Amino acid sequence: xxxxxxxxxxxxxxxxxxxxxxxxxxxxxxxxxxxxxxxxxxxxxxxxxxxxxxxxxxxxxxxxxxxxxxxxxxxxxxxxxxxxxxxxxxxxxxxxxxxxxxxxxxxxxxxxxxxxxxxxxxx
Amino acid sequence: xxxxxxxxxxxxxxxxxxxxxxxxxxxxxxxxxxxxxxxxxxxxxxxxxxxxxxxxxxxxxxxxxxxxxxxxxxxxxxxxxxxxxxxxxxxxxxxxxxxxxxxxxxxxxx
Lengths: 123, 110
Fold this sequence. Notes:
The structure holds two protein chains of two kinds. The N and C termini of chain A lie far apart (40 Å). The radius of gyration of chain A is 14 Å and the shape is globular. In chain A, the strands form two sheets. In chain A, strands 2, 4, 5, 6, 9, 10 and 11 form a seven-stranded mixed beta sheet that branches. Chain A contains no helices and eleven strands. Chain A has strands at residues 3-7, 10-12, 18-25, 32-39, 45-52, 59-60, 68-73, 78-83, 92-101, 112-113, 117-121. In chain B, the strands form two sheets. In chain B, strands 1, 3, 4, 7, 8 and 9 form a six-stranded mixed beta sheet that branches. Chain B is globular and about 40 Å long.
């Protein structure tokens, strides 16, 4: 069974840091793109970042560029997002999402979603 | 990276057809055939309904169809059913090698 399980969320003060993890199972990790998508309570979906399973070709939304980094550990089938200089507007549920296969026509089709981990930034 | 523009809400009666629009720019929707549509029921994770403008994943009803003209993509749901009531989001690849979502559309089945 294909699964994505996030962890690492919690409450943090403005300016603080958190590292979210996403562990994948049920498919070959290194063959896929991975994305982070966030959703503030009662709000819409917002794309945050993406990376290949081998940790290359990362990109970020303008709103998090310079504050977030994304890495992978294919030995652990895990994607990480390091979030620094957190702001109140970063408060959201963060979903890890599987994109397309590396080399596929469209790597940005989100077919499997984790349940998400809640990040709350508040003083 | 401005969000794609979707109507906040649409509604229709059972059996009718509705269309949800998704307007972007030549740097996203208009520039690539990489538009997807997602359905999200309350408390659930999103589910892909259409990808690459008009393709349906296995298992998605053929009542769902997608199209694109210029900078605007559209999702059409025919033969509306009560279970179609949900939030719908479009997304597109962009020229900045990023992805952008629409603001979401709440579909109400009357």
